[in-house]
């Protein structure tokens, strides 16, 4: 489960070391997975689980050095490309709200019954009377797997490395 994480430098020596905010707040799990894959020894020093996780300054600098090495040799670019390609090919998930019908009546117990009655009209996502297009899936009946909204970019790793180099150790909230 992706979580929003706030990361703060303990003794920052520059503005970039004061805090780290991923591009999309929920994307932090993807960055952590990347760190653990590319720098398993150092990544293991930081057991991200709940509020109050920390990493000491020496470990931060060591992780920044390892990430910079991985950025230079292309490992980060390869990892990000493979990860994002995998996530992009994940199958769409059936909408829980409308049960895949693409329409909502306001009465969840009747949504599947309405879909069966309306047949082709529901497939075209037409609005008829009290039947409306599902606002969770925009009438498609499915939506992208939640992990697909958590893109990871090479620049995320580069920015995190810069944060690590200047944070003086960090803690999470």
Topology:
Elements (H helix, E strand, L loop, with lengths): L6 E3 L9 E2 L7 H11 L1 H4 L10 E2 L1 H17 L1 H14 L4 E2 L8 E2 L3 H11 L1 H4 L8 E2 L8 E2 L10 H13 L3 E3 L1
Antiparallel strand pairs: 1-2, 1-8, 3-8, 4-7, 5-6
Helix pairs in contact: 3-7
Offer a quick outline of the entry.
The protein has 173 residues and is of the alpha+beta class.
Describe this structure in words.
The model has no long low-confidence stretch (mean pLDDT 78). With 173 residues, the chain is an alpha+beta fold. It is built from 7 helices and 8 strands. Helix 3 (57-73) runs antiparallel to helix 7 (154-166). The strands form 3 sheets. Strands 2-1-8-3 form a 4-stranded antiparallel β-sheet. The chain has a two-stranded antiparallel sheet with strand order 4-7. The chain has helices at residues 28-38, 40-43, 57-73, 75-88, 108-118, 120-123, 154-166; strands at 7-9, 19-20, 54-55, 93-94, 103-104, 132-133, 142-143, 170-172. The protein is elongated, with a radius of gyration of 22 Å. The protein starts with 6 loop residues before the first strand and ends with a strand. The protein has 2 domains: 7-90 and 147-172, no CATH class; 93-143, no CATH class.
Strand order of the largest sheet: 2-1-8-3
Counted up, domains total 2
Q: What is the total tally of β strands?
A: 8
Radius of gyration: 22 Å
Assign an overall shape.
elongated
What is the helical fraction, as a range of percent?
40-55%
Mean pLDDT: 78
Q: Outline the biggest β-sheet.
A: 4 strands, antiparallel
Oligomer: single chain
Which runs of at least 5 residues are low in confidence (pLDDT < 50)?
none
β-strand percent reads: 5-15%
Cα distance, first to last residue? 16 Å
| Secondary-structure element string | EEHHEHHEEHHEEHE
Q: How many helical elements?
A: 7
